[in-house]
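seq:
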Amino acid sequence: MFHFFVDRTQIDEGQNRITITGPDVNHIRNVLRMKPGEQLRVSNGEDKDYLCAVEEVSQEQVTVEILGPLESTELPARIVLFQGLPKSDKMELIIQKAVELGVYEIVPVATRRAVVKLDRKKEESKLRRWNLISESAAKQSKRLIVPQVTGVMTLEEAFSYAAGFDKCLIPYENAEGMEGTREAFASIRPGMTAGIFIGPEGGFDQEEIAQAEAHGVRPVTLGKRILRTETAGLYALSVLGFLLDGNEGDVRL
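struct:
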């Protein structure tokens, strides 16, 4: 089922109608060639998903009838991925897969060992592309929201941004004890906001880990194997998704 996002102002629940405008009109009309009666999924990008049926297709807009609400696909906790800037196009893969796995927000982080350095012009261009990738992945995976990819932060800025979170973890190759990791992941419960800090290709240095601990961010191990930067965050998100989606009494955000 095809999936589209609209603004709250485009939804008229009293009349059971949603009006789709903008680039999606061309996609529905000329690419998908959808006809009246065909069903689609529409989200307000915040807290509601609707099962809809196409009513009318014109050059300027598509009107759909609301058939009923749909169950939320969101994780019951808000997981924010703080990703150390990787080389080449790895960030695009990380964003796509993190969105599919249920991440709430992605924060690119400039760390000491990050090879990539973005000036303002390059950052603006990258952010536009990264957020388009997030939107595309959100549509494909039937997300209720489009996770935002924020501007690049320094590590100190990232720690400050996460200061009010319920839990923050930082996978580190020199951390020990999988039992502690299991406990740390299991402690992230429905209704919480949690941050996962992932280093770039070179990882975090000892001073950055000490800085993290000073901010209340807990170092954890992800096992005996050394994971690439594009793997570590997805590993953590997969574990959290498994634990949270299987948690009875979920609190949907």
